[in-house]
């Protein structure tokens, strides 16, 4: 066992889609000292409790995958919850890690940190160059604050706190709620229910023309561990001063129409796809520039159809436990 694999690693948010994938990845790589804490054991909104937990368990690496997340409806309905809870979670964890002398932290952000009208594909240096998408601005501001927390502890205390910004994620342990889920789990569930009901058509919001990039969560986990394990000199050489975050994506996008057609294939739906152009399309294109990540020796390996089949299999095996 390597020295790195023997380190005590704390994965915050281990029951979520990303956190559970990181735990799986670490276990596959032979990490034998992974610690987690469920909500009933550790309230990440409680600063004193978080500091006490770090003092007791003394992790050597921390992955911050814990967050309050949701789709457009949830972001619009609960903006105060989204900004408050995410700010508190990341601030409590990063500050407690510093006080417990944890040198290595990986903070997981979101592609929504970039301006609504950022040039495509979106480069890391697009951060703070324009206005954010209004529907998820509170969440985005919290994630930007997490990046700046990491940068600030690095500058002031010499820490090695890194940030990765994933594109749209999907896969096992996703949220398949009919109202609060993101586009892939929402469509997987809708097509699945259409097949069960024998429906001959499925209506999809918008024109189907907007382009989006999607990354399987197991690829995200692999990229996260890869970035965490990079030698500090290699990581530092890949980032500009005051710009410590790295995009994680496939570098490839597709139209919502193409996505829906692939999901229809995966779920066995043979009816018609109807696109309701009276509904808003949102941003025409959102694609991450992953040049920096590729230069650091990592790129995605799970193609969209294979990833969708994996996500759908998980849904079928967990249908009765899926949030509804």
TrEMBL record:
<feature type="binding site">
    <location>
        <position position="281"/>
    </location>
    <ligand>
        <name>substrate</name>
    </ligand>
</feature>
<dbReference type="InterPro" id="IPR001509">
    <property type="entry name" value="Epimerase_deHydtase"/>
</dbReference>
<feature type="binding site">
    <location>
        <position position="143"/>
    </location>
    <ligand>
        <name>NADP(+)</name>
    </ligand>
</feature>
<dbReference type="InterPro" id="IPR036291">
    <property type="entry name" value="NAD(P)-bd_dom_sf"/>
</dbReference>
<feature type="binding site">
    <location>
        <begin position="108"/>
        <end position="111"/>
    </location>
    <ligand>
        <name>NADP(+)</name>
    </ligand>
</feature>
<feature type="binding site">
    <location>
        <begin position="13"/>
        <end position="19"/>
    </location>
    <ligand>
        <name>NADP(+)</name>
    </ligand>
</feature>
<dbReference type="InterPro" id="IPR028614">
    <property type="entry name" value="GDP_fucose/colitose_synth"/>
</dbReference>
<feature type="binding site">
    <location>
        <position position="190"/>
    </location>
    <ligand>
        <name>substrate</name>
    </ligand>
</feature>
<feature type="binding site">
    <location>
        <position position="182"/>
    </location>
    <ligand>
        <name>NADP(+)</name>
    </ligand>
</feature>
<keyword id="KW-0413">Isomerase</keyword>
<feature type="domain" description="NAD-dependent epimerase/dehydratase">
    <location>
        <begin position="9"/>
        <end position="231"/>
    </location>
</feature>
<dbReference type="Pfam" id="PF01370">
    <property type="entry name" value="Epimerase"/>
</dbReference>
<keyword id="KW-0560">Oxidoreductase</keyword>
<keyword id="KW-0521">NADP</keyword>
<feature type="binding site">
    <location>
        <position position="212"/>
    </location>
    <ligand>
        <name>substrate</name>
    </ligand>
</feature>
<feature type="site" description="Important for catalytic activity">
    <location>
        <position position="110"/>
    </location>
</feature>
<feature type="binding site">
    <location>
        <position position="205"/>
    </location>
    <ligand>
        <name>substrate</name>
    </ligand>
</feature>
<comment type="pathway">
    <text>Nucleotide-sugar biosynthesis; GDP-L-fucose biosynthesis via de novo pathway; GDP-L-fucose from GDP-alpha-D-mannose: step 2/2.</text>
</comment>
<feature type="binding site">
    <location>
        <begin position="166"/>
        <end position="169"/>
    </location>
    <ligand>
        <name>NADP(+)</name>
    </ligand>
</feature>
<comment type="function">
    <text>Catalyzes the two-step NADP-dependent conversion of GDP-4-dehydro-6-deoxy-D-mannose to GDP-fucose, involving an epimerase and a reductase reaction.</text>
</comment>
<protein>
    <recommendedName>
        <fullName>GDP-L-fucose synthase</fullName>
        <ecNumber>1.1.1.271</ecNumber>
    </recommendedName>
</protein>
<feature type="site" description="Important for catalytic activity">
    <location>
        <position position="112"/>
    </location>
</feature>
<keyword id="KW-0511">Multifunctional enzyme</keyword>
<feature type="active site" description="Proton donor/acceptor">
    <location>
        <position position="139"/>
    </location>
</feature>
<comment type="similarity">
    <text>Belongs to the NAD(P)-dependent epimerase/dehydratase family. Fucose synthase subfamily.</text>
</comment>
């Amino acid at each position: 066992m390597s020295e790195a694999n023997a380190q005590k690693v704390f994965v915050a948010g281990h029951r979520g889609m990303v956190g559970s994938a990181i735990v799986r990845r670490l276990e596959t790589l032979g990490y034998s000292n992974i610690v987690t804490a469920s909500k009933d054991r550790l309230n990440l909104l409680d600063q004193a409790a978080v500091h006490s937990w770090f003092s007791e368990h003394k992790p050597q690496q921390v992955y911050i995958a814990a967050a309050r997340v949701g789709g457009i409806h949830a972001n619009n309905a609960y903006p105060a919850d989204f900004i408050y809870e995410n700010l508190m979670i990341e601030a409590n964890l990063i500050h407690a890690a510093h006080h417990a002398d944890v040198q290595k932290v990986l903070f997981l952000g979101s592609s929504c940190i970039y301006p609504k009208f950022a040039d495509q594909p979106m480069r890391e240096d697009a951060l703070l160059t324009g206005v954010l998408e209004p529907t998820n601005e509170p969440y985005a501001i919290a994630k930007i604050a997490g990046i700046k927390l990491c940068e600030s502890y690095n500058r002031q205390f010499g820490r090695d706190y890194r940030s990765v910004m994933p594109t749209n994620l999907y896969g096992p342990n996703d949220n398949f709620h009919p109202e609060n889920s993101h586009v892939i789990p929402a469509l997987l569930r809708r097509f699945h229910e259409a097949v069960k009901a024998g429906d001959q058509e499925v209506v999809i919001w918008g024109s189907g023309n907007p382009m989006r990039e999607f990354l399987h969560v197991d690829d995200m986990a692999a990229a996260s561990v890869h970035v965490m394990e990079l030698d500090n000199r290699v990581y530092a050489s890949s980032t500009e001063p005051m710009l410590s975050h790295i995009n994680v994506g496939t570098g490839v996008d597709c139209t919502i129409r193409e996505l829906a057609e692939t999901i229809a294939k995966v779920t066995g739906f043979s009816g018609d796809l109807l696109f309701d152009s009276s509904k808003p399309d949102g941003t025409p294109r959102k694609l991450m520039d992953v040049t920096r990540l590729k230069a650091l020796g990592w790129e995605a390996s799970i193609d969209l159809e294979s990833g969708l089949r994996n996500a759908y299999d998980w849904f079928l095996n967990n249908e009765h436990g899926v949030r509804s």
